[in-house]
């Protein structure tokens, strides 16, 4: 149970940092940050592997790179959806 809570915290921090680095808000607030962190970590680790420091089963550097890419893609999709209105 504690490792799951730790993973939620680290995933949220990764998603939050990705949003700060990109200068864009992630839709959904805290939940959006956690989802971006988890999905970004999955993408980053699938593409870049598990190198660098590992915290709560997240390889921090690939996870952050993946989360930044995810925030960028989501912001592009959200921008194109707002222009379609």
UniProtKB/TrEMBL annotation:
<comment type="similarity">
    <text>Belongs to the UPF0410 family.</text>
</comment>
<feature type="transmembrane region" description="Helical">
    <location>
        <begin position="30"/>
        <end position="48"/>
    </location>
</feature>
<keyword id="KW-0812">Transmembrane</keyword>
<dbReference type="GO" id="GO:0005886">
    <property type="term" value="C:plasma membrane"/>
</dbReference>
<protein>
    <submittedName>
        <fullName>GlsB/YeaQ/YmgE family stress response membrane protein</fullName>
    </submittedName>
</protein>
<dbReference type="InterPro" id="IPR007341">
    <property type="entry name" value="Transgly_assoc"/>
</dbReference>
<keyword id="KW-0472">Membrane</keyword>
<feature type="transmembrane region" description="Helical">
    <location>
        <begin position="6"/>
        <end position="23"/>
    </location>
</feature>
<keyword id="KW-1003">Cell membrane</keyword>
<dbReference type="Pfam" id="PF04226">
    <property type="entry name" value="Transgly_assoc"/>
</dbReference>
<keyword id="KW-1133">Transmembrane helix</keyword>
<feature type="transmembrane region" description="Helical">
    <location>
        <begin position="54"/>
        <end position="78"/>
    </location>
</feature>
